[in-house]
Amino acid sequence: MHISSFFALSSLLSLGVAQTITGQYDCLPAGGFTLCQNLWGEAAGVGSQKSTLASSSTASVSWSTNYTWANGPNNVKSYANVLSTTSKGVQLQNVASAPTAWNWNYTSQSSGIRADVSYDIWFGKASSGSPATSASSYEIMIWLSGLGGIQPVGSQITTATPVANHTWNVWKGPNANWQVISFVSSTGDINDFNVDLNAFFTYLVNSQGVASTQYIQAIQAGTEAFVGTANLVTNSYSVSIVSK
Ligand SMILES: *[C@@H]1O[C@H](CO)[C@@H](O)[C@H](O)[C@H]1NC(C)=O
Ligand SMILES: *[C@@H]1O[C@H](CO)[C@@H](O)[C@H](O)[C@H]1NC(C)=O
Ligand SMILES: *[C@@H]1O[C@H](CO)[C@@H](O)[C@H](O)[C@H]1NC(C)=O
Fold this sequence. Notes:
The chain is mainly beta and 244 residues long. It has helices at 3-16, 198-207; strands at 19-21, 27-30, 33-36, 46-56, 60-70, 78-84, 90-91, 95-97, 99-109, 114-124, 138-147, 155-163, 166-175, 178-185, 192-196, 215-239, 242-243. Residues 1-18 form the signal peptide.
């Protein structure tokens, strides 16, 4: 067999075998990413969720999550997400660019659904640290969708602020030992997002007092589900950091 036909066969196989995870903290390796269920708030309600990896490579990933959650309408039940295993460990002042592209949609959605579709980006003083730990200084959320009247942590501090070719309502407030700064799309759902995240990082340093010495410790992209039934498909997602 020629090498080229071997690679053609193995890439067909990796596209063809979808893997599904169902447990509260189940994760799957997904090329340059890790797909995790993260049903951290499931005790606040009743329901279930499963997440499926469709295909992955070093650069991009395609996946979906399917859930039904009831009760506790103000409580997050889960943050099913993909975490980049490579886009981390760079100080804000050393980022040249951080291109990302996320194409997603709901293929089914109940009425009254309360959920966001969001990036969750973690900064800290040390070059590495897990999300939502003592190593975290900032949690930066970018909401490409927020359905059912849900709100980020804290209070709204700006309206329709332009960053990276879109406009955002910025929210700020404390959570545990870190600050949360959230960008909520002021124009509704952004299903085909393709920007340089460094525009957000520059805004945070220049306008929100974030030290340029902070390190990017983790970049996650997923969905916080509160209540409702949905199947959310990420057709493709990618992110990378180019250092200076
Ligand atoms: C979502 O999960 C439910 C329950 O397992 C199933 O009936 C439904 O077909 C799934 N939807 C999709 C789009 O996978
Ligand atoms: C979701 O996106 C895919 C790819 O762009 C498209 O084929 C599909 O029709 C979309 N579904 C919905 C419900 O918008
Ligand atoms: C804004 O859009 C322009 C034109 O597509 C693109 O070159 C630029 O990189 C975008 N800016 C950001 C921050 O994504």
